[in-house]
């Protein structure tokens, strides 16, 4: 029998005709990059269409824009004219960020926060143990207990003793209060690198994660440049970098003020930044130094890190830079706070945020 290869003409698979859903994914990415500027996003899409033919003969950009309006993704701006995205678009941008960064997650129970501690709690686990005085009747696993009694005493004279009882462990659940700090200083777009868009995606993904998986949690988002202020989650797609320095102190002070008002004992701060602290506010005056690490600014920042440690608020820093002198500062900051720090490229940032969010939410005694 002859062994060999038979060749035939290769017919490449036909590309699928572009449709609304495929173009919507591109639009949501672009409108995030343009901070909600619909006109600019659609202009970019037209440029992409000319270069890469993202639309087809039967479905063009005009059809797509009409469908955006018809399906409730765009509306007329009543004051300035033109088009603007709707609340439906904002929600889809957050959901898209969640799927892109964290993957598709199944919705869990409301307020479900496992801790390392077992005992009388909220949710049954798969662990079993012997009965102890004080365990409730609801915790006793009757099937396992009857099996133990049969093994220990036989079927002839069936009886059940305290030693036969087996109990299902339950896990305590906790709630967490998180403040996410986002650096919007000028360095986030310096040298032609767009660092603010991935930072926004992480923030939107985290917000959607909390909403879907842990709706009893609180998540507050603040931005910091020369000053710090709180923003609504719905405003994340519109976030822009300003001509600002980096006032990390103002951001930490505002984060601490927010967390003081939260009743849960589990509190944490995430800080996404790409640079060193360079600014302080002294009364009405800004003290600025963009050259190197100014000890006056650094010492004030470290003092706040130590204060957070004393009141049991860990800070996890995600440094979007790998300069040695910046790493040295972050290591000192992290040591003072007893927190955590990650030096990450933007592609890995989302995974690190998700992993650390789940770790920090465990209640420690």
Summarize the structure.
The chain is an alpha/beta fold and 365 residues long. It is built from ten helices and 13 strands. The longest helix is centred in the middle third of the chain and has 18 residues, at 196-213.
At the first level of CATH, what is the class of the largest domain?
Alpha Beta
Question: Total helix count?
Answer: 10
Beta-strand content bin: 15-25%
On the 0 to 100 scale, the average pLDDT is 82
Give the CATH architecture of the largest domain. 3-Layer(aba) Sandwich
What is the 3D form? extended
Task: Describe it.
The protein is of the alpha/beta class and 365 residues long. The chain folds into 3 domains: 20-85; 114-173, no CATH class; 177-360, von Willebrand factor, type A domain (Rossmann fold). Helices cover 39% and strands 19% of the residues. The protein is built from 10 helices and 13 strands. The strands form 4 sheets. A 6-stranded mixed β-sheet has the order 8-7-6-9-12-13, sandwiched between helices. The protein has a 3-stranded antiparallel β-sheet with strand order 3-5-4. Strand 1 (74-76) and strand 2 form a beta hairpin. Helix 1 crosses helix 2 (38-52). The protein is extended and about 85 Å long. The termini are far apart. The relative contact order is 0.10.
